[in-house]
């Protein structure tokens, strides 16, 4: 529709109709759909339902076509509904969780994953996905770290932009594309104590410098929607934060699309103690710039009276309704209200071989080899027994895969039985995933417990471990132990799994752990007992195949940690790009009292950001700079030569970090500013170069200006965030 026609439409709409556009109803109003928050009594009338702008969590071409047809027929202006859903790491073909996708350091693979998710979801009738989540995460206690791509602003920005490009392409109207909703604006990834929905305290500089850049990348990539976060920031909940949306998001960051609240967040303004009643909540949220109210009764039941009382200018309603209509128009819904909803396409696309293949490739790229002594890996073939609750587990998808079917998931056990080299491998669960006294709640119901008799299961595992040359232990956290509302105060593995580890280690010293889960955990016992550890995260539909291929060396691990593994929970929040302090401490934790350190644990994480091994080895030349001085208008080149010194082909991820040695405010000890993946054959060398420009050196100075300051900088080129391979230059 032309913009002039859309304007005309808006002008013709009644106040009630315009308010209706600002309302998103939960899918269960149509007896369908997943509830991702508490289901409140919205107390809506038939008339309210008749005028709604959007539904959340309804899927399926047939259902959506029918609902859209009926809805439009009865709507006074036949305005189509928007269908939105959480397509986070895939729709039916599930890719690895976002935290694992971050570990690929491969924006093309991530973009492709989003494009496939969009293609499947579009065929199933979805118009908008609530992804990417660009929240910066530094605290593994927070269950939603699995939905982030990790602890680094730069990496997160690259990944968020890649996802937006994947979902939307160059135009979300096109076939197989959907609009992206960036979330959760802003700072949701830093809740106090790691407890979900908790208050967030960030200095203005930390917000601007560490948290906003990834959101900015997604905005710059053209995401059409932004979601307001649940949390308070400087004591103001986002849904009430006029400064955040009108000043920061729209004016400073240049976002012009639609803003939606999070689930029931407008109603929650009452619990926050920000609004005395629902009427107040409606006023505050609309004033803040929240265009659409997700699943609360606040806008529907209050905006009309507020306009009639003269408290809310109708222009505010028009402004928000315009944004909703504009989004519908950008998606082409006025011409094609079903967009790509098509049952035949659903049959052809969902879980297609090509989609499964891409999911498997992405999973393989996301695996991080944390340890590999005595060449435990790769396996030759049939020398290992496979033990642990994750051997047969179909729960490889991550908590957000609410539209996927676990029956489509290839378990490790199924993959072993299909592979000629491992089809005879002995397997045993050994124990359940969770301790029986720790029941886990899923999104909608308690998770069924594995029905194992503990002693029998353990004895069976020990007996097959005894006679095997090596044992692959498939351990980890249950997928429902991460995700929304799944924060934890203890990051160790369930007790039953640690007991299994002990029992197996007592009879076999050649242990390889494949670690599943949605967050970095405290894995000190694994590091101690296992000779090899492969972090496989929650790898999705093709997880089993990806794991078996990797263990057999058909795929060589190349993933790098997007979030560090803390030494223990006492270190979190922890991140590599911290400030130095006035008393940096690098020594043994018992020597010297007055350094910045703990008395009982090291400062360093167990495995740092950017870390990951390969079945081959790489050497780095010293860093070469094209010049040791640079002007603000100029640039310089930093290069390094990488050699594959091992015996098999492999991919190295060269990481570029910068450090500003003296500035008007303290600067992080290093910051990732670039990365490059290089595939090398054994013996092959390649020069990898990065261009350093002045904009990479900018920060918010003492007066909050985004500038660079002359002085000395260090540049690091190496395999992870602890590399000491560096050179120095001066910015004039
Ligand atoms: C989550 C969002 C999600 C929304 C819709 C909320 O509870 O915080 O991330 O997109 O539900 O399902």
Structural descriptors:
732 residues; alpha/beta; TIM Barrel; Rossmann fold; Immunoglobulin-like; 3 domains; eight-stranded parallel sheet; binds beta-D-glucopyranose
Number of strands: 27
Number of helices: 20
Number of domains: 3
What fraction, in percent, of the residue positions are helical?
25-40%
CATH class of the largest domain: Alpha Beta
- Based on secondary structure, the structural category is alpha/beta
Unreliable parts: none
CATH topology of the largest domain: TIM Barrel
The CATH architecture classification of the largest domain is Alpha-Beta Barrel
Average pLDDT reading: 96
Alpha-carbon Rg, integer: 26 Å
Portion in beta strands:
15-25%
Question: Which homologous superfamily in CATH is the superfamily of the largest domain?
Answer: Glycoside hydrolase, family 3, N-terminal domain
The separation of the N and C termini measures 53 Å
The gross shape turns out to be: globular
Strand order of the largest sheet: 9-6-5-4-3-2-1-10
Largest sheet: 8 strands, parallel
Hetero groups? beta-D-glucopyranose
Describe it.
The chain has three domains: 3-346, Glycoside hydrolase, family 3, N-terminal domain (TIM Barrel); 364-570, Glycoside hydrolase family 3 C-terminal domain (Rossmann fold); 618-731, Sandwich (Immunoglobulin-like). The protein is 30% helix and 17% strand. Helix 2 (15-21) crosses helix 13, helix 7 (153-168) runs parallel beside helix 8 (204-220) and helix 11 (278-288) crosses helix 12 (298-308). The protein is globular, with a radius of gyration of 26 Å. The N and C termini lie far apart (53 Å). The relative contact order is 0.11. The site of beta-D-glucopyranose has 9 residues, from loops.
